[in-house]
């Protein structure tokens, strides 16, 4: 009797537990606005509903800001190695990091006043690229800086010819098909992306490249109204950015940003700081505001007003080739 009574009590307990669990179970409902449209349960790709539509200028921005762009800038220190050699020992109370920040500020200010006006002018007047290149060469008294500018400029032109030149680069035909479906938020980015800009920039680059390939002493140069180009980095950077539909403001910003990144890279290899510290400076709001301020100040400056505001930067760069030992090219 006792075992039968115990079995009945156990059955009643199980039944009560099942009824309680059924009362507390919440039904699973699906939100019709978030229901996946495929069997795998994944949401549709944003590009299929026009939420994400990369523009040619965004693609060019990623290409030209890539540190792996083969320009050879890693071989130059922009005067940093000479600056470090001429500041040994440091003044009392001055740390190596503080001294480096002084050099970085002066280097950015110097580049912004000497080279940025040529970047802006070449973008606005691509047909004057040969004249601007010649004027930039005449206004660069530092031999070391001149050699570095020509080496990087010709390397950039070679990259454009082998990799970015149409049809390898994004053409305006593809941009017109994408712009028809893009949202209005990209309208400010794509103002300069049109067929006329790309065609005129490509034509100017082809002419420049053809003149650059001429032999140095050539009889044809005497009948050529244009001087033989040198291939300086600043005007060529602007023209290639224009041909790839990068807006002018971003072209100027990336020009200074890449310079700051090269100086920081040189500082890491020279033992001034570690890689994490360098990335922290590169990502800082202070550097971003400094570069943006330089672009704003030089926005309307003509090339006739360009000039060196930090002569000591040229002195440091010029004395680099007389150092007893060095790890960077002169």
Largest sheet: none
Secondary structure: number of strands: 0
Q: Roughly what percent helix? A: 55-70%
**Alpha plus pi helix count:** 14
Structural class: mainly alpha
Mean pLDDT over all positions = 80
Report the span from N to C terminus. Answer: 105 Å
* Secondary-structure element order, N to C: HHHHHHHHHHHHHH
**Assembly annotation:** single chain
Portion of residues in beta strands equals under 5%
Please state the overall shape, judged from the principal axes of the Cα atoms. extended
Describe, in plain words, how this protein is organized in 3D.
The structure is a single chain. This protein has 330 residues and is mainly alpha-helical. Helices cover 56% and strands 0% of the residues. The protein is built from 14 helices and no strands. The chain has helices at 2-24, 56-64, 80-85, 96-114, 116-124, 129-138, 143-164, 172-179, 195-212, 233-243, 248-269, 275-282, 285-297, 311-318. Helix 4 (96-114) runs antiparallel to helix 11, helix 5 (116-124) runs parallel beside helix 10 and helix 7 packs parallel to helix 10 (233-243). The termini are far apart. The relative contact order is 0.17. Residues 32-36 and 168-193 have low confidence and may be disordered.
